[in-house]
Amino acid sequence: MASPGPQSVEARPSAWGGLSYLLDTPAKRGTAIALILAVMVAAPLSGPYATVILTNALLYTILALGLNIVVGYAGLLDLGYAAFFAVGAYSVGILTTTFGWNFWATIPVAVVAAMIAGIVIGGPTLRLRSDYLAIVTLGFGEIVRIAARNLKITGSASGISGIEQPWLFGWHIKSSTDFYYVFLVLAVIGILVSVRLAGSRLGRAWLYVRHDEDAAEAMGINRVRVKLAAYVIGAIYGSIGGAFFAANLGAISPDSFSFKQSTLFLMAVILGGMGKIPGVILGAFVVVLAPEILRDFGSWRYLIFAVGLLLIMLYRPSGIWPAGSKR
Amino acid sequence: MALLDLKGVSLGFAGNRVLQDVNFAVERGAIVSLIGPNGAGKTSLFNCITGFYKPQRGSIVFDGAETLRMKPYQVTRSGIARTFQNVRLFRQMSVLENVMSGQHCRSSAGAVGAVLRLPSQRREEGRIAAIAGECLRFVGVDPDEWDRDATTLAYGHQRRVEIARALATQPKLLLLDEPAAGLTKGEKAELVTLIIRIRDERNVAVLLIEHDTGLVMTISERVSVLDHGVMIAEGTPKEIQANPRVIEAYLGSEDAEAALAL
Predict the structure, then answer these.
(1) Cβ–Cβ contacts within 10 Å for residue A265, how many?
(2) In this structure, what DSSP letter does residue B164 have?
């Protein structure tokens, strides 16, 4: 590739969005990332309460990254993302308790189950325009939750408890600090996968299809296939998040997978800035941390949180993370 | 055998006949124009050829294969590329990324290759960018513009990028839907040169819909005239200019100016 001219450097799109002028060299970006990682690694020193909350924020990060591929990259509105989260959690719950499987052996099953669910739901609906997908995913989310509530194998309304905490090469992952690090590693992997996908042939195809389906198809892109890939990859993120969520809590119940959960995941994606990885991570942290930080305000906190959200949507409709100069 | 061969193509929407029994062919390496008054069905015919519309009757054979039942992306893969009447570049994406889209159907790396950065995937990415760059140079868009957001370019350059994007699919036939619309006189002259170069240097047949009769008569080897969904004339530019049915079709429409230009 030819070297870009002086003016194009300014106009160059970047995952860093509007912060690209601050972090304009690989060295500065590396320092920023190392700094954030160092803070994240040291965070459990601030006490057990913070550790639990931050673990939850990391879980939301993983789920928001997955949903971002569906909503942010491919432009598909998914209102039932918690369903994939449930598929992962219940796969682990059922296989480890009822069938006595090792936790790690259940992960591939959880992933495959989510992929099948993704193909079954996405296959027929992704042929239609996106609006239909929102309705179908909304229904799918409810079906999974209600099925889990009524089936015997999922433990009905009381759910599944006694899910054993996993071992990893002689390390028993049991304390909240242990799980914090597991989720930190998962989140880092999730970010790497997202970054690599975004810069790939498939990542570009998602954007082509999101911006102009007809033009994309005229360029030889099978839009149904490309959307299905996004939907299924999103499902895998959700399922893995759910699997580790189940292991962390040791117990799951249908209430963990409600429509409200799907809305919160979606909110993390939209709040931070759809399609921008740092924005999505920020969104996940805001969604989890804001209610905690506002805890002093008692029952007023949700009102304050809601007003804050409205203000963000009014004044920064494309998310908190600054948009790139690409316009 | 012709590169593209349409036989008895009929298309209707809710009782409205858009195309009636259209027979039409494009030879390999030819430059052919499709003209006709507004609403004659020219773009509809393009949409039938590229798989966006499904004609109720007829056959469309491209390069020996029936394309009538193919989806648009399959038609593109088989070797037909197109541009749109109003430029439709992908917003918020760079010029280079826009043109890279054309190589999608000629490449195969999936999610696993991308996540693991397999050597085959990286080689393919390099090849996609190289071909896109070559197409951009060919249409005359310089590397210092490649990283800009495509929709911020001057209109004439956006048109060129759209042609580069279509060329990046490595087609045998290029369909241009009113490529000269909105261009200045100088840009039109450059477009003529570009179309001839596309045919001569890349061996791609070109079929264009165009309202600028002067441009059509300059570059086309054959001209077909569509009026109210019926193919009323076909021949060399000279024959078309002398054809009374063509002049009548134009005079009876709002495009009387075009008739005078004929």
Answers:
(1) 28
(2) H
Query: What distance in Å separates residue A154's CA from the closest CA in chain B?
Result: 32
User: Domain spans of chain B?
Assistant: 4-79+171-261, 91-164
Contact call for A218 and B77, based on CB within 8 A: no
Alpha helices in B90-140 (DSSP H): 95-100, 111-116, 119-139
Prediction pTM value: 0.89
Shortest distance between the Cα of B182 and any Cα of chain A, in A, equals 20
User: In sequence order, which residues have a C-beta less than 8 Å from that of residue B247 and are 6 or more positions away?
Assistant: B259, B262
Is the pLDDT at A307 greater than 90, yes or no? no
- For B163-174, the pLDDT digits (tens) are 999 999 999 999
- Of A201, A214, A233, Cβ closest to residue B109: A201
Take residue A210 and report the two structure tokens written for it: 């999101």
Residues B142 and A48: their CA atoms lie apart, in Å, by 58
Question: Distance from CA of residue B51 to its chain's centroid?
Answer: 13
Region label for B64, one of left (φ > 0), alpha (ψ between -120 and 50) or beta (otherwise): left
The ipTM estimated for the assembled molecules is 0.91
d(CA B84, CA B82): 7
Is residue B60 predicted with pLDDT exceeding 80?
A: yes
> Best mutation site among A219, A325, A327 for testing chain B: the one with the most B CBs within 10 Å?
A219
Pick the closest to residue B104 from B43, B189, B165, B35 (CA basis).
B165
C-beta of residue B2 within 8 angstroms of C-beta of residue B207: no
Residue type, A148: A
The class (CATH top level) of B4-79+171-261 is alpha beta
Cβ–Cβ contact B122 with A under 8 A? no
Residues of B in contact with A202 (CB under 8 A): 109-111, 114
Beta carbons of B101 and A223 less than 8 Å apart: no
